[in-house]
Specification:
The complex is a heterodimer. Chain A has helices at about 20-30, 85-90, 100-115, 120-125, 135-145; strands at about 1-5, 10-15, 45-50, 55, 70. Chain A is of the alpha+beta class. Chain B is an alpha+beta fold. Classes of the chains: A alpha+beta, B alpha+beta. Chains A and B meet through helix 1, helix 2, helix 3, helix 4 and helix 5 of A and helix 6, helix 8 and helix 18 of B.
Chain lengths: ~150, ~775
């Protein structure tokens, strides 16, 4: 039995230890905020935070995160008012919104590591997250805004 | 081509549709104040409008009935129905906002509810063709005005005063003379008893009194849910007992399953069943391709199970499709005369006698939609009833196709529309929902069919592949006196009818025969091209290759004559006038020419506006260049200036983009801006990387590593958007699609300005590398 802590809650899994964390979150734990976009860690839609690091849950097995703390978009802030979430709304970032959970988790992880990233650092850190609608200009502005306090 | 006989086959391209006779029977109970009836004839009378649109000619036309679209609860909550699909344009906010504006509702007390697929009840729901605001601005205003009038009448009766003395203001009805007020909630029950006013008698608000429309301060209704992971997309629906499925489909379009061995797949932990899925012979419109489904307790197990399947396919006739060879075929076809689709003057003679002929042959490969949310659908089929949850642009068409595929009455099918994680035209085709319906029927359980990214790229309805060849004849003064444009590309019609090998009217009308330049001798030709895969509409459709060719040619003419790009462009557009091409069955995005002419004054205006605001002619650093392009599509006018920077290794960046759009009367400028920002990125993606290619009938690319799209580190540093203020009664026009076509040619013209290299084949790929 593999045990993980997701958004502060203990969860266990007795099935295939190689099951990607993404599918455990979505299909077994019912946390559908984390999205499937590519399955190959190429798009970042499935980004979650494991301990303090942004991780692509589509190529991370449930076994790889045994005993660790996982934060998904649902657990980022109790009322959805993390600085990044607030900035995202202030800048009206999303179009279709599908990639945004991954973008927000990536941005939150960036700011944990580097509270005042430069524009180049923002662009580099966010470059693993694809937005096909093309919200990049606003993503960059929102991360910058979150880093300066909303 | 026989597909024209069946208007439903080409939903979204209404040139081929007749005016649908609207049945008034099955108007079902909605969210309305009471069970409603259809208030207005779906084909609007001209008297009711300042302008006419093609809305009434769409399948099932328009329904204007406040009792279907609006509900007022006793606590004052106003619920407004969104009957179009939200895929990122903001339509789920914009259309209800129009109703709220007109009925004087307080937006903070409005809830938006998504309509299910039912076009008899709601009118046409095909969310494509950049037509939601264009077709629904007036109907939504009428619905709001009707609801407002009913609330006012109820209040007037309560007070015993003439209705002319009361006025709805911000969620209340006010009697000015006495100062009495009643909230919308207090009036709800009485208002429901009021008769629905006639459209002709409705008084619409004066635009100067708008609180929300044109202001742009309203965030999209799903903004909070999107940022907290609560927004519901296709894959997020969970039903008790639901199974998870992925499907192995024939790797070549039209291929068939010969045999399969499920043994290894069945050994995978979590896999429950392996089963065949019915396929339809190609071309099959939106019917499933068939294959083998792996059913599991979660998606991860289903994918792992599919990887373990042993499959033998017969590739069939399309197994030889090869993009390198096909490009040569298209190029050769473009060098010979083809079906003439527009002829004015004598282009042959004028080209022969021209002082100089500039020739450009432009290639644009297949493109995949690659919306971030791959296709996905959930179906729950029980007996002769089916319920679907899916991110579809065409809820009405999906309902019809599910009913047909299962052989059950359409009334027994419920299509719930989730949010769409991007659409771009892909999700107008409901094959994924049909697969889920077939599987659920056979399993007797709810099932979710999830496409992987590889599935998405391998089994898309691709943007066509094209060669556009333009010959421009110049006289001694450098004036263009002859224009021959041959456009060769497999047609979307080939997905509906075997052997369709000429462009349909709607494809010709997207940047070929509607070419607006003032040239005496014009020949537009469409040589034959056969299709070997599923071709579909992709955001902006044929406008992408046509604008790429035409606007690149403007740059080439500027170079040949030693003149400025912008001046060359304006000279070609010529005098301010209404262009009336000599074309039979001219398609104008389904719109009447009276309301939506090809107006070169508006075309010139966006060029001049973007040149002014975008500082055309400004000096740029070495290695940088400016390019300009303009294009009318989806009856909007849009011009773009791109600044490109190319370093000594050929690495390309885009420091700045400026775009001016004239989309007539508009609702939400903030969402127009976001659409144009996004269009620049989609334009840059297709210009730099966009290519789906075939080898031995199979798509070569697999995922975002070999089908690359622009990421944030390559994104333009800034995209400025300028919206032309509309004249009074200027009809609204498209926004979602028009931004894409001018981007690539503006970029090519900029690259030429920076480097002297003319790129005529996309994607750019390594062409700039030294």
């Amino acid at each position: 039995m593999i045990k993980v802590k997701i958004n502060g809650q203990e969860q266990s899994w007795g099935g295939d230890p190689d099951l990607p964390l993404l599918w455990f979150l979505r299909d077994e734990a019912g946390l559908t905020g984390t999205k499937f976009g590519c399955g190959q860690a190429l798009c970042g839609a499935c980004t979650v935070i494991v301990d303090k690091e942004a991780v692509r849950s589509c190529i991370t097995s449930i076994n790889d995160v045994a005993g660790r703390e996982i934060t998904t978009i649902e657990g980022l802030h109790p009322t959805g008012d993390h600085a990044v979430q607030k900035a995202w709304r202030q800048v009206n970032v999303p179009q279709c919104g599908f990639c945004q959970a991954g973008q927000i988790m990536q941005a939150a992880a960036l700011l944990m590591d580097n509270p005042k990233p430069s524009h180049d650092q923002i662009r580099e850190a966010m470059s693993g997250n694809i937005c096909r609608c093309g919200c990049y200009q606003r993503i960059e502005n929102a991360v910058h805004l979150a880093s300066t306090g909303v | 081509m026989n597909f024209i006989d069946n208007p439903r086959k080409l939903r979204g391209f209404e040139k081929h549709t007749r005016v649908e006779k609207i049945s008034r029977r099955s108007i079902l109970r909605g969210i309305g104040i009471t069970g409603g009836f259809v208030l207005a004839a779906p084909v609007m009378s001209r008297q009711a409008f300042a302008y006419e649109t093609g809305a009434g000619k769409m399948p099932h036309g328009v329904v204007v009935d406040p009792r279907i679209f609006v509900a007022v609860a006793p606590d004052g909550t106003v619920t407004i129905l969104a009957h179009r699909s939200e895929m990122g344009t903001g339509v789920r906010t914009s259309l209800p906002l129009i109703v709220a504006e007109e009925m004087e509702a307080d937006w903070s007390k409005v809830k938006v509810q998504q309509a299910h697929g039912d076009e008899v009840k709601f009118g046409n729901q095909d969310t494509d063709g950049s037509r939601s605001t264009r077709h629904y601005l007036i109907p939504m205003r009428q619905i709001g005005a009707s609801a407002r009038t009913m609330l006012e009448q109820a209040a007037a009766k309560r007070w015993g005063v003439p209705a002319t003395e009361v006025k709805a203001v911000n969620h209340e009805v006010v009697h000015g003379a006495s100062g009495r007020k009643l909230g919308f909630g207090e009036l709800a029950a009485d208002a429901a008893k009021e008769s629905v006013p006639s459209i002709e008698g409705l008084k619409l608000k004066d635009p100067k009194d708008f609180r929300y429309l044109t202001k742009g301060q309203i965030g999209i209704v799903d903004l909070h849910d999107i940022t907290t992971g609560k927004a519901g997309y296709g894959a997020d629906v969970r039903l008790p007992g639901m199974k998870y499925a992925v499907i192995a489909r024939p790797p070549v379009t039209g291929g068939k399953l010969v045999s399969f061995d499920p043994a290894e797949a069945m050994k995978v932990s979590g896999v429950e069943k392996v089963m065949q899925v019915r396929g339809w012979p190609w071309p099959s419109k939106f019917q499933p391709l068939g294959g083998v489904a792996v059913i599991a307790r979660n998606t991860g197990a289903a994918i792992k199970g599919r990887d373990a399947l042993k499959l033998v396919w017969d590739d069939g006739a399309n197994g030889k499709y090869d993009s390198v060879a096909y490009r040569k075929e298209l190029e050769e076809a473009s060098r010979k005369p083809g079906l003439v689709v527009r002829a004015e003057g004598d282009a042959d003679a004028a080209l022969k006698s021209a002082d100089k002929v500039v020739i450009g042959e432009y290639y644009l490969p297949h493109l995949a939609h690659a919306s971030m949310e791959p296709p996905v659908a959930i179906a729950d089929v029980k007996g002769d009833k089916a319920e679907i949850w899916a991110p579809v642009q065409s809820p009405g068409g999906t309902r019809e196709d599910v009913a047909k595929t299962l052989g059950i009455p359409e009334g027994n099918v419920t299509v719930n529309v989730t949010l769409l994680g991007g659409g771009f035209g892909r999700k107008s085709k409901c094959d994924f929902a049909l697969e889920a319906a077939l599987l659920s029927k056979e399993l007797g359980a709810p099932v979710k069919v999830q496409w992987t990214r590889e599935d998405d790229l391998h089994h898309d309805f691709l943007h066509t592949v094209s060669v556009e060849r333009i010959e421009a004849g110049l006289d001694k003064s450098g004036k263009v006196v002859a224009w021959r444009h041959r456009s060769v590309a497999p047609t979307i019609a080939s997905t509906f009818a075997a052997g369709a090998n000429h462009a349909a009217a709607f494809e010709l009308g997207m940047g070929l025969v509607d070419m607006p330049f003032e040239i005496a001798n014009i020949s537009c030709e469409n040589p034959e091209a056969a299709a070997f895969t599923r071709i579909g509409w992709f955001r902006s459709v044929s406008n992408i290759p046509r604008a790429f060719a035409v606007q690149s040619m403007v740059g080439e003419i500027a170079n040949a004559t030693g003149r400025d790009q912008k001046e060359t462009l304006l000279a070609l557009i010529g005098s301010p006038r209404i262009v009336k091409p000599a074309v039979k069955d001219m398609w104008n995005y389904g719109e009447p020419f009276d309301s939506y002419p090809i107006d070169t004054a508006r075309l010139r205006k966006v060029v001049e506006l973007v040149a002014e605001k975008g500082e055309w002619g400004r000096s740029v650093p070495k290695g940088h260049g400016l390019g300009i392009a303009v294009h009318r599509s989806f009856v909007s006018y849009i011009a773009t200036i791109v600044e490109v920077a190319i370093d000594d290794k050929g690495k390309l960046t885009v420091p700045r983009v400026d775009t001016a759009i004239d989309c007539g009367t508009y609702v939400n400028p903030e969402r127009i801006q976001s659409q144009i920002e996004g269009a620049a990125i989609m334009g840059l993606s297709l210009a730099k990387y966009g290519e789906i290619s075939f080898k031995e009938g199979k798509v070569v690319q697999k995922n975002f590593d070999d089908f690359q799209v622009i990421r944030i580190d390559e994104s333009p540093l800034i995209t400025n958007v300028y919206i032309v203020p509309p004249g009074p009664d200027t009809p609204p026009s498209g926004v979602g699609e028009p931004g894409v076509p001018p981007f690539a040619p503006a970029l090519m013209n900029a690259i030429f300005a920076a480097t002297g290299k003319r790129i005529r084949a996309l994607p750019i790929g390594k062409q700039l590398e030294a």
